[in-house]
Design a protein that fits this description.
This protein is an alpha+beta fold and about 325 residues long. The chain is about 15% helix and about 20% strand. It has 7 helices and 14 strands. Bound molecules: 2-oxoglutaric acid.
Length: about 325
């Protein structure tokens, strides 16, 4: 029997998450004004609880299933690297498109605890772009080199994107947590380098002042089920996992509704199996679904929701 393509289902397909029944029920997920100001100034917020223990367990199980090369639904992935590491002594599992393959990894996109902060940061309705699974095994987990996400996304325009990184293990400096360079979202766009290669390759393209700012990097240590949100141009990366614990994560990448295709032969992404729209066309259904229509969902409550724009920041 052919595998089910969950990408054609727009909304929750399981009971892993509960959809709020009233504006009041959305309130518990609001980022505070201080968190929005931190994002404006530093380019990220972290330590936001998105998953409970049961949800973490389910997503971990699904990640382990799809990390087996011959699993049903393998054909729906946009990119699939059993080991993307350039260093043959380390392993980095990295795959994009899991939301089409397993119900929990699909439903996490419609998790209200993710949708509310994402709305506040983008300030408009937004669509699914793609997801990413990253798994660094214990003892020999590979690096994710310093980079800015939008450097890989120039096949879309304009810049109005957001990343949410969700830990499926407790993460710290020992097992290869993410690091951010606060304020680097103001650097402008830098040329991309190999994602799982030389950790510092991107420094070649930076000014001496920017290179010095690497000294300010901060580790994003969090408990499993917690998440960070970062700006599409924030410089980030993660080091090897030499610890006895695994370091698994799922990442959600979204863009504001109205984002257009900008695809050409020079910027075509990875493996070429991403759903494509002709240049200049709006990216939309079925594989870039609207995750949140704020007017419809929040109604009168909308005007009282604090946003990044209301504190003078933006994701562009
Ligand atoms: O999980 C990692 O180490 C890298 C994640 C990443 O690059 C991202 O979330 O944009």
């Amino acid at each position: 029997m052919p595998a089910q393509d969950y990408g054609l289902k727009h909304g929750l397909v399981s009971d892993l998450f509960t959809w709020p029944r009233s504006p009041k029920e959305w309130e518990q997920y609001l980022l505070t004004k201080e968190q929005l100001e931190q994002f404006r100034d530093k380019g990220f917020v972290s330590g936001i609880t998105l998953l409970n223990k049961e949800q973490v367990e389910q997503l971990r199980d699904e990640l382990e299933e799809v990390a087996q090369q011959d699993h049903p639904g393998r054909e729906f992935f946009y990119e699939y690297h059993s080991n993307e590491s350039d260093d043959r002594n380390t392993t980095l599992f990295h795959a994009l498109g899991a939301w089409r393959v397993r119900p929990g990894l699909h439903d996490v996109l419609w998790n209200p605890a993710f949708l509310m902060p994402a709305y506040q940061l983008l300030g408009s309705g937004f669509r699914m772009f793609h997801d990413q699974l990253f798994s660094k095994p214990a003892q020999h987990g590979g690096v994710v080199a310093w980079h800015q996400d939008f450097a890989y996304w120039t096949w879309t325009r304009p810049l109005q994107h957001l990343t949410c990184w969700i830990g499926l293990d407790d993460v710290d400096t020992e097992n290869g947590c993410l690091y951010y360079i606060p304020g680097s979202h103001r650097w402008g766009l830098v040329e991309k380098t190999s994602l799982a290669g030389d950790m510092y390759a991107v420094r070649e393209a930076l000014t001496p002042e920017q290179q010095l700012e690497f000294d300010q990097k901060i580790p994003i240590e969090m408990k499993r089920g917690q998440a960070s949100f970062h700006h599409p141009v924030l410089m980030h990366g993660s080091y090897e996992n030499r610890s006895s614990r695994s370091r698994r994560a799922t990442v959600i990448n979204v863009f504001a509704d109205g984002t257009l295709s900008n695809i050409n032969e020079q910027n075509r992404p990875g493996s070429g199996s991403y759903p494509e729209f002709p240049p200049g066309e709006k990216m939309g259904d079925p594989y870039y679904p609207l995750l949140l229509d704020p007017q419809r969902e929040f109604g009168d409550f909308l005007s009282s929701i604090p946003t990044l724009k209301s504190v003078g920041g933006s994701c562009s």
